[in-house]
Amino acid sequence: MDPEAQPQVTWRPGDRITSAADYRASLRGRDLAVHLMGERISEPLDHPIVAPSVNAMAATYELAEDDPQLASAESDLIHAPVNRFLHVTGSADDVVAQNRMQRRLGQMTGTCFQRCVGMDAINSLFSLTYDVDQGTHSGYHARFTSWLAEVQRQNLVIGGAMTDPKGDRSKSPTQQHDPDLFVRVVERRSDGVVVRGAKVHQTGAVNSHWMLVMPTMRLAESDRDYAVVVAVPVGAPGLTYVYGRQASDTRAMSQQGIDVGNACFAGQEVTVIFDDVFVPTEHVFMDGEWQYAADLVERFTSYHRRSYVCKTGVGDVIIGAAAQAAEYHGVAGASHVKDKIVEMVHLNETIYGSGLASSFESFQRPAGNFENNGLLANICKHNVTRFPYEIGRLAQDLAGGLLVTLPGEEEFDDPEVGPLLDKYLSTGTEIPVEDRRRILRLIENMTMGRNAVGYLTESLHGAGSPQAQRVQIARQADLSDKKAMARRLAGIPDHH
Amino acid sequence: MDPEAQPQVTWRPGDRITSAADYRASLRGRDLAVHLMGERISEPLDHPIVAPSVNAMAATYELAEDDPQLASAESDLIHAPVNRFLHVTGSADDVVAQNRMQRRLGQMTGTCFQRCVGMDAINSLFSLTYDVDQGTHSGYHARFTSWLAEVQRQNLVIGGAMTDPKGDRSKSPTQQHDPDLFVRVVERRSDGVVVRGAKVHQTGAVNSHWMLVMPTMRLAESDRDYAVVVAVPVGAPGLTYVYGRQASDTRAMSQQGIDVGNACFAGQEVTVIFDDVFVPTEHVFMDGEWQYAADLVERFTSYHRRSYVCKTGVGDVIIGAAAQAAEYHGVAGASHVKDKIVEMVHLNETIYGSGLASSFESFQRPAGNFENNGLLANICKHNVTRFPYEIGRLAQDLAGGLLVTLPGEEEFDDPEVGPLLDKYLSTGTEIPVEDRRRILRLIENMTMGRNAVGYLTESLHGAGSPQAQRVQIARQADLSDKKAMARRLAGIPDHH
Amino acid sequence: MDPEAQPQVTWRPGDRITSAADYRASLRGRDLAVHLMGERISEPLDHPIVAPSVNAMAATYELAEDDPQLASAESDLIHAPVNRFLHVTGSADDVVAQNRMQRRLGQMTGTCFQRCVGMDAINSLFSLTYDVDQGTHSGYHARFTSWLAEVQRQNLVIGGAMTDPKGDRSKSPTQQHDPDLFVRVVERRSDGVVVRGAKVHQTGAVNSHWMLVMPTMRLAESDRDYAVVVAVPVGAPGLTYVYGRQASDTRAMSQQGIDVGNACFAGQEVTVIFDDVFVPTEHVFMDGEWQYAADLVERFTSYHRRSYVCKTGVGDVIIGAAAQAAEYHGVAGASHVKDKIVEMVHLNETIYGSGLASSFESFQRPAGNFENNGLLANICKHNVTRFPYEIGRLAQDLAGGLLVTLPGEEEFDDPEVGPLLDKYLSTGTEIPVEDRRRILRLIENMTMGRNAVGYLTESLHGAGSPQAQRVQIARQADLSDKKAMARRLAGIPDHH
Amino acid sequence: MDPEAQPQVTWRPGDRITSAADYRASLRGRDLAVHLMGERISEPLDHPIVAPSVNAMAATYELAEDDPQLASAESDLIHAPVNRFLHVTGSADDVVAQNRMQRRLGQMTGTCFQRCVGMDAINSLFSLTYDVDQGTHSGYHARFTSWLAEVQRQNLVIGGAMTDPKGDRSKSPTQQHDPDLFVRVVERRSDGVVVRGAKVHQTGAVNSHWMLVMPTMRLAESDRDYAVVVAVPVGAPGLTYVYGRQASDTRAMSQQGIDVGNACFAGQEVTVIFDDVFVPTEHVFMDGEWQYAADLVERFTSYHRRSYVCKTGVGDVIIGAAAQAAEYHGVAGASHVKDKIVEMVHLNETIYGSGLASSFESFQRPAGNFENNGLLANICKHNVTRFPYEIGRLAQDLAGGLLVTLPGEEEFDDPEVGPLLDKYLSTGTEIPVEDRRRILRLIENMTMGRNAVGYLTESLHGAGSPQAQRVQIARQADLSDKKAMARRLAGIPDHH
Lengths: 496, 496, 496, 496
Fold this sequence. Notes:
The structure is a homotetramer. Chain A has helices at residues 20-27, 51-66, 68-71, 92-109, 116-136, 140-154, 293-307, 310-329, 335-360, 374-384, 387-399, 402-405, 409-413, 417-425, 433-447, 452-461, 466-476, 479-490, and strands at residues 34-36, 39-40, 72-75, 80-83, 158-161, 184-189, 192-203, 210-213, 228-233, 239-243, 269-280, 284-287, 363-364, 370-371. The first copy, chain A, is of the alpha+beta class.
C-alpha cells in the first residue's frame, strides 16, 4: 500500500512500459500545462491532489503483472501479450473479461481507475474505421491499427476525449454563438489538420499518454468540420488542462491521512482546451464523414455503459466497509443490519448481472472484433444511475451518525483531547478506535467525499446521463414485436 | 390460435410424442383422480378451466418442432435430439439456451408453461445422484440416467414435486403433530418403497407424465425417512389431485371468450396427495441420504431461480399490451406514456440480464453437466419478486380506468345495449372497439385475473419466497472478502 | 355481519331515510334499466353481484347511526343533523372529519363505499355556483342549495357523474367525430334542458338516488353546450346503466361464500347512458358558463384526491389480514415478517398523513364553505397511485403461495377430499384450516380479486390518473420562489 | 446576505437578546474550550468554519424580528412574547406553527439551524417533570419552569444534549467496561450534583447558551445514576468541545467563496465532554427517576421526529437549485426535466404532509402543553431517512456532470485560464458563467459537501436512525385492531 516505494526505474521515452514504476516515470518531464488551485503544477504526479489518481491508473499496470490472465491478452496486431485495456476484443469472452477486470480494479482502488474510456474508444474505432473504409476507401482503418499497434508495443495509456461543452443544448455545432463549443478542424494542411475547441469532464487525461478525440453526438452535413477523430499526444503543443475541484479534495494534503478516507486512490476530472493543436495525417482517423458520427457514439456508449460494472467493484468496497463498520459498532448480528447488507449486495449484483449479460451477448463486427449487446448495456448503465445512491444511503445508515460528527485527526493526536476522544469512542473491545475512524472516513470518502464523485455522480452522468439511456432503451426495445405478441394472445386479428 | 384444430392422431402409450397433438392424446384415458368445483373431472384436458394450461404445456412441444435449435438439444444419453426440457446440460451455452427458450415461451403463452420444474429437477438430480454415488456407492446415478433416457425416448413431460405442506414451520418433519406433513417412506419392500404425504403448489402436475418427488429442505439424521427422491407416473394408484381455484378462473367457461383476456393459455396449480403410493426400486433415486437433502434443494433452486426469466417473456407481452392500449387510446405519443414504457422495459430487461448472467457463468459438476451461478440466480429471482408488480402497475396506468369498469361481452352482444356501448367507446378511428376491449381484458387477465397468478404471485413465491433468496444472498455474498478490501483501502492493518 | 337481517321497514318515497334498512327499501321498485350478464336485472340489490356494493353504501348509514359524531354534522341549510356525506363543510375541522369517516368506512367494508364523489361534488358546487353567481347573477347558488336542502331532509345518496368517454383524447368535445362523446345539452326548453351523452366509470351509480352531472375538463367557448351541471334522479327516463364486469365477480354467486373473500362488501362501477334526459330548470346548476368548467374540475379533484385516504382504511384491513395470515402460518415472530408489516404501516400512514394535512390546511371560500389544500391533495392521491400496490405485494408475500393454489370450497366440503385437505393444511395448532382459508381468500379478494379493483386500479385512476396529479403538482409547486431561495443562498444577484 | 454587517451592539450578559447582533455579541468572551484542526479556538464565531453555523442560528433571531407571528409566541410563563423556539406549546396550532417556522428557516439557510433540539426538549420536559411530580412530589416541574422563564426572559439558545457514546451497544450503562460511556451523576452534594461523561453528535452546542442534558434511552433500576436531567451553561467549568470535521469544510476558508456553495450557512456538530461538571440543585430536573427515562425519550423523539420537516425547507432550496440549473443549462423545457422536478416536489411535500399531520393531531398533556401524534411523527422522520437522498440524486441528475468536474475559483480568476473557461462554459445566453458555477457549487454543497451532512446524513440519523422509527411504528400501529377488522370481513368468528 505504499505505491511510491518503487524500485530504481530506467524507463526512457519510447521504451515499453513494463511496470507501474515505468508508468510513473513515463509521466515525468512532460511539462504539461496543468492548472490547479491557482498554480501551474509542474509534475502533476507529485501533487498530493493528483497523486491518488496516478496511483489508481498505475493499478491497471500492477494488475496486468500480478494477474496477466485477467488483465492482459494476446494482441492480433503485434502478436504479443498486451494490457487488456489496449486489446481489441477477439471474442465474446474477451468482452466479458473486460468486465471481470473492471470489477477487480474497482475492488482494488475503490474509485475510478480512468482507463476504460480508452479501451472502449479503440474497440469502437476499430470497427468503425473499418466500416467507413468500406464506403469511402478512406484508409482510416489501416492508419488506426498502425497507430494502435505502436501504442500496444509501448504499452501506453489512451484517454478518450468525447464530451464537448455543447453551449446551448438546443443548437447544433454550427448554430452556436461560438463555433468552438464543439471540437473542430480549423485548418487542413497537406501533412495534417489543426483542431480547436475543448473537451470537458475528461477522466484521467493528465495521467494518459494519448488522447483519442471523437465527436460527441449525431452530426448533420453542415457539421462536417466537427466530424473529426484524431489521436493526440497528451503533451502536444496547444493543450491546456484545468483540474476540477471536488468535494474534500484538499484532505489529500493532510499528513497522516486517516481523514482522507482512501489515502491512496482517487479519480481525476479535467477540462482540456485545444488551442489550435496540429495533428499529422497518420493520426487522423476521421475527417468530415459526418454520417458516421452517430454510429461511433452509439458503439462507444454501448461498450462504455457496460464498462460501468467497475462500480460493482467499488460497491464491493463500500459494502465491505459498511459491514465492517457494523461489526466495529457491535451490531453486525442485528437482523436489520444483516438485511441491509443483503439489500446492498442484491443491488450491486443486479448491476453486475446486467453488465455481464451485455458482454456475454456480444456479436462480431465485420472488422472482426466483438461488441456487446447494446440494449443490455443501457440497462446496466441505467441501473448504475440509481443503485449506488441507495447502496450509499444504506452504507451511511450502517455507519451511524459518527460518520459526520467525527472529530479530525489533529484532535485525536492532541495530547490533551486525544485520550478523551479515545476513551469515549471505545466500545470496550479490542477494536482500536483508530480502526473505527478509518472505516468511517472511508465511507465518508465514498458517499460524500472525494470518491463520491466517482461512485455517485459519475455513475449518474458518465457515459451519458439517465435520459440518454432511456432514449436508447426506447429505440432498442422493439415495441412492435411486443405489441404483436399481445395482440396475438388477446385474439386481435391482423387487420391493422 | 385454435390449438384444438389438430390433425388425426395415432399416438399410443409408449410411442414417442412427436407433436402437440400426440401430447394431447397422451393425456387422455388416464383416469386421474382430479377434483375441481365439486366434481371428479374425467378428462381434465376437456375441462374449460384446465384446457388453457394444457395448451401452454403443448406450446413446449410446438416450439421444439418450429424452432428445434432453440427448443431441442442432442442428448448424450440417447444420442438423439430431445426436447430441451428433457436435456441434461452439456455446456454453459446449454444453460443459456434454456433461458432463451423460456423467454420465448413466455412470449408465446403469456403465462406459466409449467415444464421448467422438471427440467431443473433432472439437471439437479443428474449431478446430485452422481455425487451421492461417490460417497455411498448407491447406484442412484445409473438408475436415474436409465429412467431419464427412457423418458427422453418417449419425449414425456416431467413435473417436479418439491413443496411439502410443512405444518408448523418452526418444527422439523419428525416433530410435527402429524408425520405425514412431509412426504416420507412409510414402508420399504424388497421391490420398492411406499410413500405417503402431499405436495402443494404443484405446477402443471395434471399435465405431466411423471413426477419427480424430492425433499423440500435441509434434513437432520432423524428425518431419514423423509430423504426420499422417487419418480412416479402421474397416473399411479394412490394419487389424488385437487385443482386450485384462482382469480377469474370461471371466465374460461364463457363462450365467446373476449372477457377471458387470454383465451388460449393459463397456468395450473394443484395439490397432490400421496396415499401410500408404491414406487419400484428402479425409480428410487434417494432413500435415506438425509445429508444430501440441503444440497439437492440448493442445486434445484439455483437452476430454478434463474428459470424465472420466463417472466420476462410474459413481461414482453404485458409491455406490448400496455403500449398497444396506449396506441388504441390515442396517447402513445405522450411523453409520460413513452417514459412509462421505457421503465417497464428497463425493469424487464434487468431481470433478464441477471438471469442470463447466471446461466453464462455456469460451471461443470463432476457428473459432467453444467450448473448456473447460484448468487446471480438468487439475484435474478429476487428481482422477479419485485419488478413484475411495478410493471403490472404501470400497465394498469397505461390501460386507464376502463380496465375495471368495462361491461361484459353479453352487454356488447346485446342488440339494444351493444350499439350504445360501441358508440360511446369509439375513439373515432379505425380501431374497432372490440380490439380495445380485447387488449384491456388481456391486461386485466395478467394483472388481476387468472394469469396474474403466474405473473405476480408465482413470481413472488415460486422457487422460494423473497426471504429464501435473501438468506442465500447473505450466504453467497462473501462478506469477509469485501471487508478485507475495505480495510485495505482504509489503511487498517491486519491485526484482527 | 348479516346485513340482510333487517327489521320491518315502513319507509316510503319522500320519507326521511333513517336507517340502512330504509336505505335498502328506497332502492326497491325503481325499475332502473340495469344491464348485467346479458340480463336487465329488475331489482339490482337482490342480484348477488350487486348486493355487496349496496351493503358498502349502506354502511354509510349505519355509521351515522352508530357514531353520529363521526359520520353526521349539523347542517346550516336545514338546521338539523345530516349525514356527513351530505354536509357542506363549515370549518377545517369538518374537512378533516371527512377523512376520519372515510378511513373508518374503509376499515368497516374493505372496499369502496361509493359515497365520496357526491360529498365532494356538493362541496365543489356550493362554492362554485356562488362564484358563478357573482359574475353572472345566474341564481345557480340558490337553486343548488334549495335542491341540496331537500336531499339533506330526505337523507338521500348523491352520486357524482363526471367522467365522459372522451373519444379521441387529442380533440375537444366539438371536434369529436360524434358530438355525444361528452355529455351536452341537446335541447333547451322553457322548463328545462335535455341532455345526451354518457358517463363512464360511475362509482355506485345504481346505489344512488341522485346523480350530479358535471363537465370533466377545461372547456373552450365553442364547447358551451358541454358546460352543463344538472342533478338527475337515478330513475329518470332515458337513463341506461351497464354494469361493469370485474375480476372474480361471479364468486359472489357461490353459496357458502368462503371463496368470495369478502362476503359482504364490494364496489360498483357502471357506465351510464343519457338518452335525451329531461332536467327541469330547478335542477340545472350550470348551463353554458364554459369559463368555470376548469375551476369546477379543479375544486372537485382537490376535494376528491384527498378523499382517497379511504384507501388507508382498506389498507388497515389488508395489513391486518397479512399479519393474521402470518400468525396463522406460525411465522409472525420472524424478523422479516415484522419488518414487512412495519413497511406496510409506514406506507399506509404516509398516505394518511398527506391527506390529513391537506384537510387541516383548508381555507374558506367566499361562499362560506371550507376547501382543502390543493397541492397536498395531489400529493396524497399521487401516493395512493403507488403505495397500495406495494402494500398489496407485501401482503401477498406474507400470505404465501397458498394464496393462489388453494382448492375451492366445494373440495373442502367434499366428504372424500375435504378431510385430506384439512389434514394436510393443518398446522397442528388450534387454528381451524377454515380460518386460514378465509384470510387467504380475503387477501386474494383485495389484491387480485374483486376488491383489488377498488384497492389498486381505482387507487391509480380514480379522481384522475397519475399524470393528472403531476400536472397539478407542477402548477402548484411555486418553482419561482424556490429558485429565488436557491439563488439567494448561492449568492447570485438579482440581475435576471 | 452580509450577516456580519451589523449595527453597534451594546448587549451585556443578562440582557435580553433582542437581535441577531445581540446574539452574536452574547457568544463572545466565553472562553469555551473548543478544539478544531489542532487548535483551541478562542472565539468560535470568528473561525471561518464555525461562522456559518452561527449565521444559521442567528437566522432564528432574525426571523422572530421579521415575522413575529411565525417565529414568536406569547408565553404563559412570563406573559410576554418569546421566540417560538423557547415557547411551551399551548395548542395544536402552536405545534403546527413550529413546523411552518422550521420549513421557513430551512428555506432561509439551506442547512440545519440547530435550535429545534432545545425547543423539543423543553416541551418534553415541561410535561414530563409535571408527570414525575405527580408520582414523586419531586418539585421538578416548578424548578424547570422557573429556569425556563428566566431563559425566556433573556431570549437565550438552549441546546439539547441526549446522545451518549454508548460503548458496546449490547450492554446497559452499568455493564460497560467504562462507567462513563453514559453521562451520570458521580457525586451528590448538598447544593447540587456533579456529572461526568460525554455527549456525541451535539448539534449547535457551541452556538448555544444552555445545554439540557437528558438520558438517551430506557434505563433499568440499576442505572439510577444515569437517570439525570440537568441544565448546564455552555461555558460551565469542566466542559470540552471537540468540533467535528466534515466534507469540504475547509472550503469555507477560501476568500471569494463561490466554491463554498452556500457562503453564509452551515450546520455544526460537536462532541461534548463533561469532566465532572457541577450543577446546582435549581438546575437539576431529574436525578434517579430511572422509570421515566424511556418516557422522556419517547416524548422528545415524538416532537423531534416531526421537527424534521425543516428538511422540506432545505428541500425547497435544492429543488429550486436544480430547476435553476436546468434553466441555466437551457433544458428547463424538456419533459424529463419537468418530470424530475415534479418528483422532487412530490417527495418533499410527502414529508411535509406527514409532519404537519402529526402536529395537527396533537393532544394535550396533563401539564397543559400540547404534544404531536407519535405514530405520524415516526412516519414523517422515516420518510426523511429516504426521500432527501432521492431528491439529492435527482438534483445531481439535473445539475449535470459539470457538478463534479468544475474547475476551482482560482482558475476562473486566472488571467490566462479564466477567459478560456468562460469562453467554453458559455451557453451563448445572458446567463453569466459565474451564476452557473454558483448554482452548481450550491448543489454540490447540499449533496456531497458540507450541507450534505445536514440534508442527507443527519436526515438519516438525527432524532434516531431508521430502525428506531421502525421499532416505534411497530409499537404504535395497533395491529390487533387491524387483525380484528380483517377477521370480521373474512367471516372468521371470534373463537380465538
